[in-house]
Specification:
The protein has about 160 residues and is mainly beta. It has one domain: Nucleoside Triphosphate Pyrophosphohydrolase (Alpha-Beta Complex), CATH 3.90.79.10. The chain has 2 helices and 11 strands, in the order ββββαβββββαββ. It has helices at about 45-60, 125-135, and strands spanning about 5-15, 15-25, 35, 35-40, 60-65, 70-75, 85-95, 95, 105-110, 140-145, 155-160. Strands 1, 2, 3, 4, 6, 7, 9, 10 and 11 form a 9-stranded mixed β-sheet that branches. A two-stranded antiparallel ribbon has the order 5-8. It is globular, with a radius of gyration of 15 Å. Bound molecules: the ligand Nc1[nH]c(=O)nc2c1ncn2[C@H]1C[C@H](O)[C@@H](COP(=O)(O)OP(=O)(O)OP(=O)(O)O)O1. Ligand 6U4 binds next to strand 1, strand 4 and strand 7. It catalyses: 2-oxo-ATP + H2O = 2-oxo-AMP + diphosphate + H(+); 8-oxo-dGTP + H2O = 8-oxo-dGMP + diphosphate + H(+); N(6)-methyl-dATP + H2O = N(6)-methyl-dAMP + diphosphate + H(+); O(6)-methyl-dGTP + H2O = O(6)-methyl-dGMP + diphosphate + H(+). Keywords: Hydrolase, Magnesium, Metal-binding. Monomer.
């Protein structure tokens, strides 16, 4: 299993429908890409606690724990770079306090759920993110993403469950 990480997708209703908060990564892993907000789960933290800490650190918002919904998992595998493997737990959240801000880590931006910036994201996001964000599942889905030798192209994608 890869390093435990979390992603949390804030959702709001815009004029054209549902919108999600993503952001341009300004440093570290995936720099330059549009990514979900989140990061590594620290020792002693639950995934939900890590999501609240990361969203406060990366985007200045305090999530309302009661408005967080478990949204599945992604097992990210990088066979050419196994130290990059990550076991990702996901949440959506529809209520928070504070104004979204830009930090050293990320420049957050709202996108319509039906027009995700997939050309500027990790190539695999197109496979799983629309499913996660529609929320049209009763049980949160579990995905497997295996990257090719270049650590960018998707070699294998699978929905493991439910
Ligand atoms: N193939 C992939 N596609 C994708 O969309 N997101 C991926 C991915 N592989 C990893 N991620 C995400 C999951 C995780 O939340 C994030 C890890 O990057 P982090 O922001 O945690 O890394 P950093 O080391 O820059 O920062 P910290 O954890 O804050 O130290 O990358």
């Amino acid at each position: 299993m890869g390093a435990p990480v979390v992603l949390c997708f804030l959702l709001r209703e815009g004029q054209e429908g549902s919108e999600v908060l993503l952001g341009r990564k300004r440093r570290g892993f995936g720099v330059g890409k549009i990514v979900g907000l989140g990061g590594h789960i620290e020792a002693g933290e639950t995934a939900a606690q890590a999501a609240r800490r990361e969203l406060a650190e990366e985007a200045c918002v305090e999530l309302d724990a009661a408005a967080m919904r478990a949204a599945g998992t992604v097992d990210f595998r990088f066979p050419a770079r196994p130290e990059w493997d990550m076991a990702c737990t996901m949440f959506t959240c529809t209520r928070w306090e504070g104004e979204v801000c830009t930090t050293e880590e990320i420049e957050p931006e709202w996108f319509p759920v039906d027009a995700l910036p997939v050309d500027r994201m990790w190539q695999d996001a197109d496979h799983w993110l629309p499913i996660v964000l529609t929320g049209a599942w009763a049980v949160p889905p579990d995905f497997l993403v295996e990257m090719a030798e270049d650590n960018e192209t998707v070699a294998r994608f699978a929905v493991l469950g439910p």
